[in-house]
């Protein structure tokens, strides 16, 4: 296999230019007019024929022989509604920020696109390049990966395997890590509305207090985890918002709760979804109120196919001279790449990108600064893994 890392290093300046433009023009959700247009035009400039699979937000391009096997590489492009506080000369000034590194993800996949185009015809089959919106769940409706699947990203040509990566402060800078099996939580937003009966604050006997009911529901949900979930399982149920009422002396008619459910096991996820609904409805009923529960914008677990992780790790070593580090624990967050991982064999890698001398920060921190020097490694990783899989698959491996 070729030395893709050396070739990617030659593209470092262009990837840095791409990343900094994207960083200065962050957009959220599906409102990626500038971002998707930039990516679209960059792909065209390479001689590719990109498609705007979702208007103004989702871009796909295919490189190679579409009559052979098809492998998918994925990057997300959306930012967060945060005010950047890095002080970088190319910092965002529009109240949004790439605090999760999606600008690097897109720039690295553009780098891989150029490498694959430069060697078109030298590998069997084709690589589909997917640039998606709304991984961060800042819009309404389905998450970006699900929308791309529904729009046909896995078809024409049919995708047989896929991979993606995320920059991470949890892996040493300049190293790639992987965890076989379930690598990230499923996630649901849990939306609860309790309806009682409004009344004067001095005459609570004349009404039904939905704020009080929400307090009891909150406590009951914590007991649900303590008494009905095996302690060996990893489950998080957090209520991040409770709101209701407009004045000190009025009991409102409704109160609203919003939280998040995250699990590593799909059966546990199904069980808890039903039990949360039951606990909310029955607790409300005990106080004479009613509760409605909605599970919004679900994303499944991200599953790393162990055989594919091993295969891609070999390809990465062949194309870069580096080794994939086995992570000691799964990623503690969620990612809608899980939608793809439950459709085709998939692998998701973590790329260490926090500078060694940087203060400890986490993803989504408005102060986080990433090391742009890792981008050639990311582009080489994408290219070597796709190339290696295609060669092996074409040989019947």
Written overview of the protein:
The protein is an alpha/beta fold and 397 residues long. The chain folds into 2 domains: 4-184 and 301-394, Zn peptidases (Aminopeptidase, 3-Layer(aba) Sandwich); 186-299, Alpha-Beta Plaits (2-Layer Sandwich), CATH 3.30.70.360. It has helices at residues 4-9, 12-24, 33-45, 102-118, 144-150, 210-228, 266-286, 306-320, 338-341, 375-394, and strands at residues 51-54, 58-64, 70-76, 126-132, 161-168, 176-178, 181-184, 186-195, 199-200, 235-243, 250-251, 254-263, 290-299, 302-304, 324-326, 346-352. Strands 1-2-4-3-5-16-6-15 form an 8-stranded mixed sheet, with helices on both faces. Strands 10-12-8-13 form a 4-stranded antiparallel sheet, with helices on one face. It has a two-stranded antiparallel ribbon with strand order 7-14. Helix 4 links the parallel strand 3 and strand 4. Helix 8 (306-320) packs across helix 10 (375-394).
What is the count of DSSP helices, taking H or I runs of 4+ residues? 10
Question: How many β-strands, per DSSP?
Answer: 16
Helix content: 25-40%
Beta-strand percentage? 15-25%
Q: Report the CATH C-level class of the largest domain.
A: Alpha Beta
Main pleated sheet = 8 strands, mixed
Question: What is the overall pLDDT average?
Answer: 95
Structural class: alpha/beta
State the shape.
Answer: elongated
CATH superfamily of the largest domain: Zn peptidases
The CATH architecture of the largest domain is: 3-Layer(aba) Sandwich
Rounded to the nearest angstrom, the distance between the terminal CA atoms is 17 Å
């Amino acid at each position: 296999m070729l030395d893709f890392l050396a070739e990617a290093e030659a593209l470092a300046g262009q990837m840095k230019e791409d990343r900094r433009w994207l960083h200065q023009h962050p957009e959220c959700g599906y409102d990626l007019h500038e971002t998707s247009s930039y990516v679209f035009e960059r792909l065209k400039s390479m001689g590719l024929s990109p498609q705007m699979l979702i208007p103004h937000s989702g871009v796909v391009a295919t490189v190679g022989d579409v009559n052979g096997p098809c492998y998918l590489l994925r990057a997300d492009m959306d930012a967060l509604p945060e005010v950047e506080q890095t002080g970088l000369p190319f910092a965002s000034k529009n109240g949004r920020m790439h605090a999760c590194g999606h600008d690097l993800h897109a720039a690295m996949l553009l780098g891989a696109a150029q490498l694959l185009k430069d060697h078109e015809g030298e590998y069997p089959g084709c690589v589909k390049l997917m640039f998606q919106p709304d991984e961060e769940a800042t819009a309404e409706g389905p998450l970006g990966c699900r929308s791309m699947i529904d729009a046909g990203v896995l078809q024409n040509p049919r995708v047989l395997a896929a991979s993606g990566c995320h920059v991470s402060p949890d892996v040493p800078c300049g190293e790639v890590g992987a965890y076989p099996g379930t690598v990230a939580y499923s996630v649901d937003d849990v939306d609860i509305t309790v309806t009682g009966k409004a009344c004067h604050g001095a005459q609570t006997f004349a009404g039904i207090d939905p704020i009080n009911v929400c307090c009891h529901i909150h406590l009951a949900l914590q007991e649900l985890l303590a008494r009905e979930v095996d302690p060996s399982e990893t489950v998080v149920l957090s209520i991040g918002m409770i709101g209701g009422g407009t004045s000190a002396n009025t009991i409102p008619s409704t109160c609203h709760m919003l939280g998040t459910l995250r699990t590593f096991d799909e059966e546990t996820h199904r069980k808890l979804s039903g039990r949360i609904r039951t606990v909310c409805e029955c607790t409300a009923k005990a106080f004479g109120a009613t509760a409605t529960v909605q599970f919004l914008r679900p994303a499944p677990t991200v599953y790393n196919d162990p055989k594919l992780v091993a295969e891609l790790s070999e390809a990465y070593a062949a194309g870069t001279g580096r080794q994939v580090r086995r992570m000691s624990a799964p990623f503690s967050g969620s990612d809608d790449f899980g939608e793809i991982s439950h459709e085709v064999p998939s692998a998701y890698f973590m790329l260490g990108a926090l500078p060694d001398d940087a203060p400890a920060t986490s993803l989504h921190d408005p102060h986080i600064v990433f090391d742009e020097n890792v981008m050639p490694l990311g582009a080489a990783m994408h290219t070597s893994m796709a190339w290696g899989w295609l060669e092996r698959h074409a040989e019947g491996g």
